[in-house]
Amino acid sequence: MKILVTGGTGYIGSHTVVALQQQGFEVVIVDNLSNSQADIAYQIEKITGQQPLLEVFDLADREKTADFFKRHSDIKGVIHFAAFKAVGESVEKPVYYYRNNLVSLMNILESMQENNVQNIVFSSSCTVYGQPDELPVSEMAPIKKAESPYGNTKQISEEILQDFIKVSNVHAIALRYFNPIGAHESALIGELPLGVPNNLVPFITQTAIGIREQLKVFGDDYPTPDGTPIRDYIHVVDLAKAHVVAVRRMIENKMKQNLEVFNLGTGKGYSVLEVIKAFEKVSGTKLNYKIVARREGDVTQVWADSSFSNDELGWKAEKGLDEMVASAWKWEQAYRSR
Ligand code: NAD
Ligand code: WQD
């Protein structure tokens, strides 16, 4: 059973390729390597014993995308990770983000229809909820006006899927990830941010290993118990497994609607200081950090109501915060000593 994983050499994509191969799927990756490296295919092979086929091109190129689908018309499903994801950069370069994230999706959908490929899993984000009025936030919560062009690409993509499934035989599952962190237990694959990391956990591990001097904690005056913002951190390996479940659900015709939306979180929120404490505990190191002003656009707190995905998908995040940060630390150390 052949699955196309777009963005499959990226962070979440690579972990999902491993999970798919371990469940017996054949995987083809398309990635333009704009935020990842081709050697990830070899790292995946070290874990699973199989090297996924990797085709390097830009999915925003309509002809190349159409040609790819013609050559691989036996694909049974698509997991579409490929996108730009840096919130701050999207504010600086909105058109660059809209073009990449939206044109790629539209090219894929057209090619799927032309080649009768019926199933797509789409990477969405909890960013669509903004600061929810009620916590935990369920899939039924209203979508808030996007804080950034990046967030807007996720909202528009979900709308494109909604419109497209009405007029095609394509079925879609949109998975709204909360905050994915951590790495595969082998430490052969993990998160590899280009340049200075935007996200908390890569910044922590890079500070601890000496690449960054000091972590800036963006504000401790939020209305939360310790004053720092709260997020639902989820282990990337748990997240990857949910994609395999979603693909099976589509292929086995178990979907209840032609577009389904699921939250992927643990249902538990942790503050920035709690993440730092967990890191210091599992790594046995003291982290150099200081409290600075709030970062623009940050919401105070968000965590998932994961009951719908737990009940409907029969999937549940299993790994706790200590395991998440320990695996991120193991990966950082292994990568830097390569
Ligand atoms: P990533 O940057 O590690 O992976 C994305 C991959 O897509 C990269 O390998 C990149 O080279 C590739 N890519 C980008 N544009 C492409 C194009 N036009 N053609 C071909 N390849 C292209 O990011 P990730 O963290 O693995 O995120 C995967 C998906 O999940 C993205 O859609 C992202 O928006 C979404 N998401 C991520 C997070 C997160 O915190 N990491 C949270 C919610 C949603
Ligand atoms: C977490 C917390 C920061 C860095 C982002 C995107 C979101 C989704 C997931 C894709 C916040 C604090 C961070 C630092 C800090 N991605 N922090 N110092 O902002 O919840 O979500 O990634 O869809 O769309 O916005 O994640 O890891 O950046 O921040 O204090 O150097 O850590 O203020 O409270 P965020 P994050």
Show the helix and strand layout.
Blueprint: E1 2-6, H1 11-22, E2 26-30, H2 40-48, E3 53-55, H3 62-71, E4 75-80, H4 87-92, H5 94-114, E5 119-125, H6 149-167, E6 171-177, E7 179-181, H7 200-209, E8 215-218, E9 230-231, E10 233-235, H8 236-251, E11 259-264, E12 270-271, H9 272-283, E13 289-292, H10 307-313, H11 321-336
Parallel strand pairs: 1-2, 1-4, 2-3, 4-5, 5-6, 6-11, 7-10, 8-13
Antiparallel strand pairs: 9-12
Helix pairs in contact: 1-2, 1-8, 3-5, 5-6, 7-11, 9-11
Bound molecules: nicotinamide-adenine-dinucleotide and UDP-4-deoxy-4-formamido-beta-L-arabinopyranose.
Describe this structure in words.
With 338 residues, the chain is of the alpha/beta class. The protein has a domain at 2-182 and 232-264: Rossmann fold, CATH 3.40.50. Helices cover 41% and strands 17% of the residues. It is built from 11 helices and 13 strands. The protein has helices at residues 11-22, 40-48, 62-71, 87-92, 94-114, 149-167, 200-209, 236-251, 272-283, 307-313, 321-336, and strands at 2-6, 26-30, 53-55, 75-80, 119-125, 171-177, 179-181, 215-218, 230-231, 233-235, 259-264, 270-271, 289-292. A 7-stranded parallel sheet has the order 3-2-1-4-5-6-11, sandwiched between helices. Strands 7-10 form a two-stranded parallel sheet. β1, α1 (11-22) and β2 (26-30) form a beta-alpha-beta unit. α1 packs across α8 (236-251) and α7 (200-209) packs across α11 (321-336). The longest helix has 21 residues, at 94-114. Residues 7, 9-13, 30-36, 58-60, 81-85, 100, 104, 123, 125, 177, 179-180 line the site of nicotinamide-adenine-dinucleotide (NAD).
